[in-house]
Amino acid sequence: MARVRWARKCAARxxxxxxCGNYAISGGKVCRVHGGSARQVRRAAQRRLxxxxxxxxxxxxxxxxxxERTDWAVARVLAASDVLGIAVEQLVRSDVWSAAAISDxxxxxxxxxxxxxxxRFGPRGTAATQKVKRDAP
Length: 137
Ligand SMILES: [Zn+2]
What we know:
Number of helices: 5
Mean pLDDT: 86
Strand content: under 5%
Shape: rod-shaped
Bound molecules: zinc ion
Number of strands: 0
């Protein structure tokens, strides 16, 4: 995913009442000079950046799931049409299940795609569970 730069102007005003004009710190609302270097402000900015990237990861995962489920469903319908010899337009939902019951066509038995997160955003788990996952085939 492309990196998204935080390009936001500082919310503070100068003594003469005009806007500061500097860029805010990454993830923040104010520039370095107007409080952006304070620890609590930097920490809040970090949290906002992390939150934003988590939302983007979720949106990307949902888009991917939608695409994969459509492909999965289309492949099932086409396979059912093939196995039963019924035109796609005439198939009903239960035909897919009937076709799966009588045929071992791989598209009819492919598991339904599930929501997958980028590893960076998934649960970290303990070192022990990570080791188990790594050792699994
Ligand atoms: Zn400023």
